[in-house]
Specification:
Length: about 600
Amino acid sequence: MCGIVGYIGDKNGIDIVVKGLQRLEYRGYDSAGVAGISAGKIQIVKKNGRVDVLRQTVEDVKFSSHVGIGHTRWATHGEPSDINAHPHISHKGKVAIVHNGIIENYLSLKKELQKKGKVFLSETDSEVIAHLLEEVLENSAGDMIAALQIVQRTLVGAFAVVILSVDEPNLIYAIKKGTPLVLGIGKGENFLASDGTPLVQYTKSVIYIGDGEILRLSANDFQIYNSDIQEISHATSVLEMEMSMIEKDGYAHFMLKEIYEQPKTILDSMRGRIAADMSEVKLGGINNYAPQLYNANRYLFLACGTSYHAGMVARYVFEQLCRVSCEVDVASEFRYRKPVIHAGDAIFAISQSGETADTIVAIEEAKHHGANIFGICNVVGSTISRVSHEGAYTHAGVEIGVASTKAFTAQLTVLYLFALKIAQSKGTLTPAQIKQYCSELHAIPDQVSEILALSPQILEISKSLKDIHSMLFLGRGVQFPIALEGALKMKEITYIHAEGYAAGEMKHGPIALIDEFVPTVIIAIKDSNYLKVLSNIKEIKARKGKVIAIVNKGDDDIKGIADFCIEIPETSELLAPLLTTIPLQLLAYHTANVRGCDIDKPRNLAKSVTVE
């Protein structure tokens, strides 16, 4: 959600910032703006709508500055508009700010500042930061670092704030709590961004700013202070990203590109983690907490959205392979139901971005009760990777499409590896079974490639869905979460109302929706639930419902009943979600395409949900 870019150097910073904002479009937004310092004044240009609208306006007014900050907004307080867009400027025009996050105490602060004569122009919570900072600066003899310390301690909520001051035109300042901010270190120029995508074109040397820290940035130097205003040092990290990762490489959409990358990303997620002879799983990222992981009496999976579905799959897998009690929770609900957490519980926090606010808050709650946290995320240096005790990266590479695809299958792959590693340690699987699962897991990328070759067939099926308004997705057992995921993908990018259900629940309500206008996608592979799913299909057809079935190759029984069949290779029942999810991704993609939807930028959605 939202995106920040900052630049200071000898180039036109406004052009660089606008280009950076375009790199951040995948995060989701509704308006955008930039600020710079020109002729001793802060100049701001901000527009409702796409960054292209902002870019054209900047070109029309010939806006340039050696220093610039920019923002893409995802509305929380106040509707999308030019006025509510960032940057926001203080009452006297002394400072301008951009802000990611939510200020929870903004109403009380706003009332106090209004009593002091501050005039607010927007409906946002963010504008209060600009007025508050200007007020505090006046009482701090212009000492920006001291003023930011007070501001940071005054604000309640999550924030990354980047600041320009007309009195210090050759500096950028920033503060951070709970929302990502990355410093990119160049030669004679420096950068700030919400993530690495705007930086990779210019530098690979980065520092991840920590919570409570204050940054002062010039073109040639920077200083970072802790909350007590003591200067601290940070080791630089190498940005593990290439330009090719953030370009479409000939694909019509990033989502399609990322769907087709899955044979590679699944393989990358297990690379070096399975012995060459398939006899064991190796996970170096858990060495320090291995006993706590293996000896836990309970595993909890915390996540949101697509990552939550990965956790649901993991519950089936861990319980069957490791024979340990498992729970899965939507992270946004976890702490509010006063959960029972025991010291020594092992918690898997799953997040593509590693910055999901609800999941981070849930981790904090669990850690407070003595649980051991194992993070599974895709972004090196992200908050979840830093606050977890141990964990593993998925190595899926940058995912630009808002609707997650390759990150989901990478998460599943890593979760399978964790389950096999635990089962191997606990002795709940024999060496022969470990080898069988490792061998079949290693074969998955080639099988995914086979399914991707079915894309033209799935496109033809999608054409039949162009004008429908509602769909059902059904699955049993470990395929139930995949039905949920398939429905989520369909609703995210096509705007078709789609619901996922456990197939056994069909007669408990959803069957009332079945008619010739509500098609059902059903996962009907030959597993332990096959005959029950076959009965579900017959029940749907008896009510004139249209059926799109995901089946194994050579299944003539269902082929003779269903309206459409998508045939996929066979693998072990517990590993099959890695295969069954692929045709559902393609089905959603092609349906969105034939409906003319904005696939990579679905309305109202954000890639990284960094506020609760």
